Amino acid sequence: MQKTGKVYLIGAGPGDPDLLTVKALRYLQSAQVVIYDRLVSDEIMALIPPEAVLVPVGKAPKHHMVPQEGINELLVEHAQKAEIIVRLKGGDPFIFGRGSEEAQRLVEAGIPFEVIPGITAAQGCATSLHVPLTHRGLATGVRYVTGHCRNDVPLDLNWQSLADEDTTLVVYMGLAAIEQISRELIAHGMNPEIPVLAISKGTTKDERHVLADLRTAYQVAKQEELKAPTLFIIGEVASFTGQLQVDEHLSAVSGDAVVQVKEAAHG
Questions:
Q1: Cα–Cα distances in Å, from 260 out to 34, 221, 246, 248, 249?
Q2: Domains contained in the chain, CATH given
Q3: Sheet bearing 53-56, strands edge to edge
Q4: Does residue 23 have an active-site annotation?
């Protein structure tokens, strides 16, 4: 029986290398082969050992360098040659990452694998701006949907279910479809004035964000020339944008004053 290596399906998170899990970093730095996506940040790529074989399989809108079936076969091929193979994905492998399709192929080929989760974009992007995805009295739940369908077919979502103002709706890869998404949600009863936060390249040095409402989200995103990947947070929690901030200068002055008072009291 031919000996095979082990494949690690690793989530790289939304871009900030500090958001990698300890386990992800450990296996990334032990990798002999790394098959990686386009959206993995340069800072995370720099953590890979220089002797590792790098295989880019990045996907851009309407352009897939390597189709998914080809990626599946690359995993099998490299597992027959190396011991530690990393499949590195932005975000989390099992949240719009097609990691389960790759896992199915590995099972068929009898190749051992492990899934190492990553911080998904919804969590990373929201918390980088101190925006909660749930909040008592505003959002009792959160739903993740993709704004990009397989083979670029039109979106066909359960709009009536998604137009729930008590639930935060997070749209991944929604830049191209946000006009349709906004229109459908409003048509199915969602308040046109509900806030929408658009975050481009969240948690990275190139992060940009804009706050709009559902009626104007498309126009604002276009006007600001936001670039992919852009995540949309739709719901009342988006109103927290810019609110949960502390003036670090004032905080530092206040802290110094407290220290001085304590020193005087003990002087």
A1: 53, 48, 22, 18, 17
A2: 6-119 (3.40.1010.10), 122-240 (3.30.950.10)
A3: 53-56, 33-36, 84-89, 6-11, 113-116
A4: no
Q: Is there a contact between 94 and 100 (Cβ–Cβ < 8 Å)?
A: yes
Choosing from 6, 45, 59, 213, which is the catalytic residue? 59
The token duo for 162 is 């998604």
Residue 37 falls in the annotated catalytic set: yes
Given the residues 16, 89, 164, 173, select the one marked as catalytic.
173
Tens digit of each residue's pLDDT (9 = 90 or more) over 98-145 = 999 999 999 999 999 999 999 999 999 999 999 999 999 999 999 999
Residues in the chain: 267
> Is residue 65 flagged as an active site residue?
no
Exposure of 264 by Cβ count < 10 A (0-12 exposed, 13-18 middle, 19+ buried)? Answer: exposed
8 A C-beta contact, residue 61 and residue 42: no
Residue 247 corresponds to which amino acid?
A: D
Q: Which of 16, 37, 92, 164 is catalytic?
A: 37
Tens of pLDDT, residues 16-45: 999 999 999 999 999 999 999 998 999 999
